[in-house]
Amino acid sequence: MFYREAGQFKTSYASDEAVFPIRQDKIGIIVILLVAFVAIPLFGNGFLLQAVMIPFLIYTLATIGLNLLTGYTGLLSLGTGAFMGVGAYACYKLATVFPEVNILVWILASGFVAAAVGVFFGLPSLRIKGFYLAIATLAAQFFLQWCFVRIPWLVNYNISNAIEVPTRTLFGIAVVGPTASPQVRYLIVLTIVVVMTWIASNIVRGRIGRMWMAVRDMDIAAELMGIRLLPTKLLAFAVSSFYCGVAGAMMVFLWYGGAEADTFNINQSFFVLSMVIIGGLGSLLGSYLGAALIFILPILLRLVPAELGMPLHPATAEHLSFIIVGALIILFLIVEPHGLARLWQLAKQKLRVWPYPY
Amino acid sequence: MRAPSGAGIAAGDVLLAVEGVSLAFGGVKAITGVSFDIRKGEIRAIIGPNGAGKTSMLNVINGFYHPQAGRITFKGTTRKAMRPHAAAAGGIARTFQNVALFKSMTTLDNIMAARALKMHKSFFWQIFRYGPALREEVEHRKTVEEIIDFLEIEHIRRIPVGKLPYGLQKRVELGRALAMEPDLLLLDEPMAGMNLEEKEDMSRFVIDVNNQYGTTIALIEHDMGVVMDLSDRVVVLDHGCKIADGTPNEVKKDQAVIDAYLGIAH
Amino acid sequence: MRGEATTTYTDTFPKLLLMNAAQRGHRPAMREKDLGIWQAWTWEQVLDEVRAFALGLKELGLARDDKVAIVGNNRPRLYWSMCAAQSVGAVPVPVYQDSVADEMAYVLAHAGVKIAVVENQEQVDKLLSISERLPELAYIIYDEARGLRDYDHTRLKSFADVQKIGRALDPRSSALWWQDSISKGKGADLCVILYTSGTTGRPKGVMLTYDNVIRSSRNANAYDKLDENEEVIAYLPMAWVGDHIFSYAQSYCSGYCVNCPETPETIIEDRREIGTTYAFAPPRIYENLLTLTMVRMEDASAIKRKVFHYFMRVARRWGEKILNKERVPLYARFLYWLGNIVVYAPLKNRYGFSRVRVAYTAGEAIGPEIFRYYRALGINLKQLYGQTEASVYVTAQPDGEIFADSVGKPNYEVEVKIDDKGEVLYRSPGVFTGYYKDPDKTAETKTPDGWVRSGDAGFFDPKSGHLKIIDRAKDVGRLKDGTLFAPKYIENKLKFYPNIREAVALGDKRDFVSVMLNIDPVAVGSWAERNNVTFGSYQELAAHPKVYDMLAAHVDEVNRSLSEEGPMAGAQIRRFLILHKELDADDGELTRTMKVRRGFIVERYGPLAAGLYDGSKEVDASTEVTFEDGRKGAISGRVKIRDMRVYPSATAQAPVGKAA
Amino acid sequence: MSLLYKIFFTPFVQMAAAPDLLVQTLWEGLVAGVLYALIALGFVLIFKASGVFNFAQGIMVVFGALTLVGLYDLLTQYGLSIPAVAAFVALGLTIAVMFLLAFGVELMILRPLVNQPDIILFMATFGLTYFLIGLGELVFGGNPKIMISEQLYLPRGAVDLKMLGGFVSLQKIDIAAAIIASIMVAGLAVFFSKTRIGRALRAVADSHKAALAVGISLEQIWVIVWFTSGLVALVTGIMWGARSEVSFALQIIALRALPVLILGGFTSIPGAIVGGLIIGIGEKLGEFYWGPLLGSGIESWLAYFIALAFLLFRPQGLFGEKIIERV
Questions:
Q1: Which candidate among A259, B48, B227, D206 keeps its CA 20 to 30 Å from the CA of D231?
Q2: Which of A143, A160, A265 is nearest to D294 (CA)?
């Protein structure tokens, strides 16, 4: 009902294919960005930034990464956690071997290492499909996790056998490490995530995105149209892993401030996968919504009772949140198998045709 | 949409020739020693009873199946077997017996996807969707819109094809094939399961494609009426063997063909 | 109130084009939804296109005063070819694209068309099929090449090729020649020939000069304060004078942008995308939109339906008042404001009327319900009365003076008078010079001193001073005492009551007016249930005294309103009866388009008709009927007749309205 | 050079040098393989009948074992003094629970999600996993438990066979596991080939209509199948539990069993069995003889690499036929 599109007409393909062709959407996104970049850092407290926003954004990026692979290209992967790990460890090595180069450069660069590894483990997709491939990606998960544990070189032979994030600065401001303020880290994470989301949307709306989706929907037809399957799939693995890698690096350097091999265990993979599914396969918006629901929900489950003055035993709360999240996942799948993104789509459609029902 | 590159082949010359092609799955023989040719600019029909190996033949021509024996000559180069990518790049496009569209993509994206081979701007530009990438995108969008206009499917431009009625899906699929600007267009039962009106539309489009863009067309069709109207020459397969080849009228009179359709065993 | 028309002005469309290109060269002049987006042409680009095509035409041998036929849906190139033809002194003749070959053959032959500019293969085929009957037709020029590839191109050219010819000429000399040819044109020249789609007999070619068209267009622009910022959508037949004025003349005069839809099917979406500011349509368009809305809302969720209907009630109660800037209570304003957010604005958005400033309905009478609906939404929908012979504008409703049943006041520079037979005559700078090659018909319609017979009967409403059209002049009769009797007008008034399905008014050459009524079984039936009136059959219901009382009340109201309408006051209803059977097309009582066949009914129900005038209280009638299964049968019964009181004429006979 | 030597020569020398060790390793591999086979069987049953890739199989193993132990504790607390009785009552109850679980799954997940894409159903079972973890821990607590082996009369200790100039020590529990597992498999085989329901189940794998023709509703079949694989899970749980301890760490072994599926195919019961053995044995040999080269713990991924390597040569898996793609 708030969509008043009369008089919004397109006189060029460029404007017709803009990210937000409808004026009302443009306004909306601008408002959101203002809130994210200005309001939250100004008024948000440490907890909000450190325990909610930063992890939410990082998971969003990982979810986008997995979505590019599973949602857009139809290749189910259970190795997300490991690819995030690759990013984290790569970033750590690079940052410690070349301390003079700015850390942010390395955070992004680590994505390329992850991409390379991703491509390698994507090779089986030449021969196998579907759940067989999914299981193959578990190979990556377990092997890489094993490497994190067994190769002390990765952590510079720390006795703790864990990553310890050093303090690094940008223009004299500490951006990573113990002394970096949540505000600074939040803004960095936000910037990276927003930019990479924009890039992702460019990719999926363009030739490459269409090739991915073609392969997903009907690989035979795609092949007979001259789309080479293996390179297309491998590219998907590369880009996806890049995103996961960067997410992993940020997770360690801008959120935890340290990590050991177990941080990137299989549960991490499933966690992200559930975000993709709940958010909606093949939707960037969905990646945000999914991450929000799956990550923020447990937090609420922990906070709300406490606020109500009946604090649960942490363990109990933990178990409860497991039960509820599990139930919710099933519920959502039943209500809307195409995820939150689809729900939003439907709602938006309703608003556009209001007061008509269709 | 510009006229396809003739590759130095004049109208009337042989564009594609299959010689002694045989194909078998395990023990099952699908095609045995079939030879025929397709001349540039003609509409060539491949007919025959069910299980005659018609679709397999198309699959051989665009490299989806690799025959055990025989040669395929396309645009003067002879191969033992085509490769899908080579075939597509060489200008062979096709539609499928039971529509093989990208169901969750819109009509527009389906047809745009077929331009993949013709779009070359680097990944670098792609990620910014700016400069060359955007220009390329727009220029191809224009071509695609011309096809949409040509097939009169403007109104379903933004609808996911999975939601479309069968007849329209067939039309979109034709559009997708056209977007490859093929020299040789393979249509696998383009009118299967259509009502009379839809059939007439589709026939009109096939003819228009053929004379507007001079595209060579090979089609499989069961509706004899349609075949007789559309095609310049007909090749008849039965149980994987060629039993007749010639103009519609010659074929119609051919005894072997009549028997085959009456189901008399050989 | 004088229009700006007396001031000196650019007097031909080619000159206007030059002017627009000079004054607002970079503003959009035309758009067309093509290949998925709105392709736009600025005035400068249009100028270039037109010039190229005009020169091409000249090279094809088009000379001054030659005729150029324009056939097809609204496409920019077809509009350009009109101006191009005019620029070389030729006369465009737009033809209805849906007319059958034979009809077209007549028009083209009658006009002596030399070149035809057509939209596509369909039209080309049509013309080729009749080409032997058109010896003068030298070339057919088509816009859309689709399917025409293998046609013999000796007499066939594509629009683009003709432009190529034009562009190939030496730019300087050809430009000079063109300038010169344009400056040769003057206001008195023949501008266009519009063939009125002949409901009776052959179509007549209405000749309009530049002065006609341009002056009435300018006046119309002034009347509604239209300027270069308007957006209109061109979707009505180009051969219809309405479209010619609205999508061509007024645009050239004020410099606003004309938008052509992608296909006739996508018109609603296209209108929404553009968001027209000035709309012009026959009633059925508005009817269809309304029906669509109602159908859609039926499928909506219960809550939504409730909300919708609630706020529609609010709108009906207050909407028009607010639109007419009357004083309304604050709470009403608030409710309307709320409704606007929830229902009205979204609806207008769906219609593509969000930005509309002026919307006209014309051509025929619009149902008051429909009319009020749009007014209530806050859309400035107005009625106008126009004719091809007048370059459309005769009268129109000024802002704030809107009535469902009037067609408004004379436009600038238009004089209107009612002759003693009640027929409407008008005179204005817009009136046509004559029918092409048909002096007799011209003489019939146009008096020596320039008055044009509209063929419609009407009168000026004494209260509002608005013109009201009551009927076709030939259908208007007289009572014995000579007072005006317009059956359709009275019948329509009665039929606005939901309880009355049909009405047949008698009175021509009789002492007084009386009517036969047909109740609406659904409406009256439900009324009966609500007021526990029991009945077994339609006949019983129709004969029920309470029903009679109710309809009597309606008739009484009609009488009162008639009494207030000057010349109509004499034609109040003295007696009425309710027919014992439903009027039915199967019995030949209605036409297939559900119009009453008055004459037939009167003789079929002879006894009843007689009864109405011989003063009897009730009459026995027996009528043969045809049942669904085709069997014949007879319905007989006793039909009561009611006498009605008449009101004294509220006003003296209205003076012949001279508003100019 | 020396590396190749280490890889392609040394291990075999070691094998030849100490055949008893080799046998020992093979035996352990065999036992592990049997249990893998059991888990894989659970997957296959469900995938065949309801086309669901049941990610929750692993957690069902844990859940079964946990329930059994938990119920046993409760029973003994509330009066049932005779351990054996309590144990078997608990076992009975657990089976009942597994049935309820199957029933619930059919009602809450399969029925509403029928005809949804595979990945959706997969995700649903994933939600189920979360749910069961939470529930299990909430009810029985998160800390590891001891399987009630002797109460169930499961043997303990080991028999040492003197052979090949050395000792091969076989844990009795392993022998029991092997035997029970074999019985289980045989039982299922009979159930599938002989009984009416069993045939119906096989029919479902081919087409749902066929199943209806046999006169059993899809819903019933799903319940049965999930119950069956629930039992399989329970047995597996008891075995693993008896060998180590009952904790959520167990679910990881379900993931270990996945390569078996790649190897054997999602729909082949013999595939699951043979695949299980291959993986089990391969894993143990690899770890024992080649593991030291890479440092320990390689069994966490070795199985996958074996399976993948195998797949590259035979994409259709052990017993699958070659697929002809049609368009």
A1: D206
A2: A143
CATH superfamily of C480-643: ANL, C-terminal domain (3.30.300.30)
Which residue spans within A136-280 are E strands per DSSP? Answer: 163-164, 168-170, 173-176, 258-259
- Measured between beta carbons, the chain B residues lying within 8 angstroms of D327 are 55, 59, 64, 96-97, 100
Domains of chain C by residue range: 11-254, 279-473, 480-643
Contacts of B55 in chain D (CB under 8 A): 326-327
The C-alpha of C38 sits at a distance from chain A's nearest C-alpha, in angstroms, of: 5
Q: Out of B64, B105, B123, whose CB is closest to A224?
A: B64
Edge-to-edge strand ranges of the sheet holding B92-94: B92-94, B184-188, B216-220, B43-47, B233-238, B241-246
Q: What is the mean pLDDT of each run of 10 residues along chain B (266 residues)?
A: 54 91 89 95 92 92 93 93 92 93 96 93 88 92 94 92 94 96 95 90 92 92 88 93 93 88 62
3-state DSSP call for residue B97? coil
- Cα first-last separation, chain C: 8
Nearest 10 degrees: Cα torsion A177, A178, A182, A184: -40
Q: What is d(CA D96, CA D104) in angstroms, rounded to the nearest whole number?
A: 12
Structural domain range at position A203: 20-353
Contacts of C262 in chain B (CB under 8 A): 154
In the block, tokens 């039993």 appear at: B243
Q: Residues with Cβ < 8 Å from C66, sequence gap 6 or more?
A: C90, C91, C114, C115
* Count of the separate structural domains present in chain A: 1
Q: Does B147 touch chain A (CB under 8 A)?
A: no
Q: Coil, strand, or helix at residue D88?
A: helix
Position C199 scores a pLDDT of 56
Collapsing DSSP to helix, strand or coil, A161 comes out as coil
Q: What is the tens place of the pLDDT at every residue in C195-208?
A: 986 556 788 999 99
> Is A12 part of a structural domain of the chain?
no
Q: Do A322 and D137 touch (CB under 8 A)?
A: yes
Please name the fold of domain C11-254: Rossmann fold (3.40.50)
Output the pLDDT for position C566: 78
What is the Cα–Cα distance from B20 to B215, expressed in whole angstroms?
A: 26
Answer whether D282's CB lies under 8 Å from D267's CB. Answer: no
Note the pLDDT of residue C651.
58
Task: Give chain D's length.
Answer: 327
Q: Do C272 and A5 touch (CB under 8 A)?
A: yes
Percent of chain A with pLDDT strictly greater than 90: 62
Mean pLDDT of all residues in C166-182:
95
CB D311 to CB A128 under 8 A? yes
> Under a CB-based contact definition with an 8 Å cutoff, are residues D41 and D229 in contact?
yes
Evaluate if residue C652 carries a pLDDT over 70. Answer: no
Cβ contact A199–B88 (<8 Å): no
- Indicate whether this model's pTM tops 0.90: no
Report CB contact under 8 Å: A9, C355.
no
Could you tell me the CATH superfamily of domain B1-91+183-266? P-loop containing nucleotide triphosphate hydrolases (3.40.50.300)
| Residue D208 confidence (pLDDT) | 59
Highest mean pLDDT range out of C77-86, D46-55, D77-86, D117-126?
C77-86
- Hey, are the CB atoms on B55 and D324 less than 8 Å from each other? no
B97:D322 CB<8 A:
no
CATH for A142 = 1.10.3470
- The per-residue b/e assignment along C220-256, b for 16 or more CB within 10 angstroms, e otherwise, is bbbbbebebebbbbbbbbbbbbbbbbbbbbbbbbbbb
- Closest-CA residue in chain C for A9? C273
pLDDT of residue C310: 94
Q: At C577, which helix (H) or strand (E)?
A: strand C573-578
* CATH 2.30.38.10 corresponds to the domain C279-473: yes
